[in-house]
Amino acid sequence: MGLMDSSVAHGAAGAALMGGWAFYANSGHAMPAPLWAALVQGALTAGVTVVLKRVQEALVPRLQGAPGLVGPPVVCAAISFCLLYTIHSLAGTPEVLATLAVPVSVATLYACLYTWRLWSRG
Predict the structure, then answer these.
(1) 8, 13, 94, 100: which one has the fewest Cβ atoms less than 10 Å from its Cβ?
(2) C-alpha to C-alpha distance for 35 and 54, rounded to whole angstroms
(3) What's the domain count of the chain?
């Protein structure tokens, strides 16, 4: 198994990048709000990335044709937004929508690309 197939690599990269974004999105607020948002987003991204990767790996082989290509990214986008919105709201993240803008967009793009990779392998 290569680095591109590693759940740990996918989760760790996502955690570092999206935690950094959450810090930036909340940097206009006093500490520890940006740090807390970064830690929450980093942990969520690591966990969500691994879960979404596995959801895609389970769905793609079960869905034939266009549904196998479109369905998994739509499911992943919905799971990502709902979960992140709920947890950031509960955690008191000041800029929830700004915090989610990049992670949900990247998660959806990731889901599209990874689904394509799995789908094209047949």
Answers:
(1) 8
(2) 29
(3) 1
